[in-house]
Amino acid sequence: MNSRREMLKLMAATGGALVVTGGLAARTLRPDSRPVAAAAPALAGPIPPFQVAMPIPRTLRPTSRSSTTDYYTLDVQQAVTEILPGKRTTVLTYGGSLPGPVIRARSGRTVVVRQTNRIADGTSMHLHGAVVDPANDGGPMDLIAPGATRTYTFPNRQVAASLWYHDHAHMADAEHVYRGMSGFYLVGDANEDSLGLPQGAYDVPVMIRDVGLDDDGSLYFDHLFTSRPQILVNGKPQPYFRVRARKYRLRLVNGSNLRPFEFKLDDGASFQQISTDRGLLPAPVTLSSLPLSPGERADIVVDFSRYAAGTRIVLQNTFFATDTTAQIMRFDVGDPAPDTSRVPAELATLPALGTPTLTRSFALTLDPATGGGLINGRQFDENRVDFTVRQGATEIWEISNVDQIPHNFHIHLVDFRVLDVDGTPPAPGEAGLKDIVSVMPGQKARIQVRFAYPYLGRYYYHCHLIDHGAMGMMGQFDIVRS
């Protein structure tokens, strides 16, 4: 079953479930924060789209700065927001907002985040895509206990990229992220500054995800794909966004636990993709549709100057043509604005791939009997190291999806290049630096991984359909000296 069309037919036949039953229980978080069991979803239907404005996540300001380092405070805390009109929804957050605030970092300048865990569960903040030592990686077993405080140190020894942070506490991360624990972390550098890309108010983080809500506004959590019919963009349901008639850089992240997207403007107009997960592409790619699986990022530039004031353009999800999530958000075009930005023909130089010395194979599946997530037939075990890698090595990893449901594959610390999927080379927009590769049912992806960073120790790899990782579809490896 290699095509998306066949996968969609399967999902239609199975009621749209992307995961088997089992694992974590279905739970609703009530305003008094007591999780209660839910026998079956009694979900509110999606509200009519384009009723509310899309907010832009606030930028977190440092509490102090030195010549080398920016210091931040970003606590984990419960908050109340409005998703359904007039109803209060209790969420779990970084810094009290949904999504969390944006941290804007600079390549080569250290960021230190002081974090107190003010919720009832252990948490672990993973900076997804970060080049960081194991102690600051936010691993699934490296928890901050309720009421405790710790600091994370991020040296930002990497090129400009749109990263994001999210909870990674094993077996709780699926629910924590679903309830709101994620946010943007944007790394800039001198090369990016020199390109003349849209910036300031025209450089907009856009986190897109799905949820299910009870009629009273409470978030409902289980592992069924069909229990999440409402799309949120920066925490608001299918909003509108007023834009000026000029170029915008939109930093898209698929923040869903399970749902894949394929983004397209409803008039069929093209846009330019300028980056993927871990940085700028060598050159911009002109597209009319953009697929993103959970956790993947892509920056695009949309030129709204081609539209007259008053034009309304809908960003669609064409992955599911008849799904409630087919309309993501609407752009309401206003008057022109001065625009000196540009998208140059050359963006970045990618590192050489090198010569691989080893090939590893990984088979992803869910156990239909237990609901456990398996890689090479084994569920995650914190006491087992699955293999070691020599620092400086270059390897080919083959990832096979032997299930009848989608998966993807994320590696901590390192970036990689997609070589092919079922023998087909990647599209230009997938040919940059990646940290997630999508693997649809029956597919095999080959990636080339460089362990070129100056850190030793334990890191993780897992399916980034977060529910699958929470069910155990995860492994760990040690990087050792050459």
Structural class: mainly beta
Calculate the mean pLDDT score and round it.
Answer: 91
State the separation between the terminal residues, measured CA to CA: 40 Å
What fraction strand? 35-45%
Low-pLDDT residue spans: 1-40
State the share of residues found in helices, binned by percent. Answer: under 10%
Radius of gyration, CA atoms, in whole angstroms: 21 Å
Global geometry? globular
Total E-strand runs: 35
Keywords:
single chain; five-stranded mixed sheet; 5% helix; ten-stranded mixed sheet; 4 helices; 482 residues; globular
Task: Write a structural description.
The protein is built from 4 helices and 35 strands. The protein is mainly beta and 482 residues long. The strands form 7 sheets. Strands 1, 2, 13, 14, 15, 16, 18, 20, 21 and 23 form a 10-stranded mixed sheet that branches. A 5-stranded mixed sheet has the order 17-25-24-19-22, with no helix packed on it. The longest helix has 10 residues. It is globular. The two termini are 40 Å apart.
What secondary-structure arrangement, pairings included, does this model have?
Elements: H1 4-13, E1 27-29, E2 35-37, E3 64-65, E4 69-73, E5 76-82, E6 88-94, E7 100-106, E8 110-116, E9 125-128, E10 149-154, E11 161-167, H2 173-178, E12 182-188, H3 190-194, E13 203-213, E14 219-221, E15 230-233, E16 236-237, E17 240-245, E18 247-254, E19 261-265, E20 271-276, E21 279-287, E22 290-292, E23 297-303, E24 312-317, E25 327-336, E26 358-366, E27 373-375, E28 387-390, E29 394-401, E30 407-411, E31 416-421, E32 436-439, E33 444-450, E34 457-462, H4 466-470, E35 474-480
Parallel strand pairs: 4-8, 7-12, 13-18, 17-25, 26-29, 28-35
Antiparallel strand pairs: 1-2, 1-14, 3-4, 5-6, 8-10, 9-11, 11-12, 13-14, 13-15, 15-16, 18-23, 19-22, 19-24, 20-21, 20-23, 24-25, 26-27, 29-33, 30-32, 30-34, 31-33, 34-35
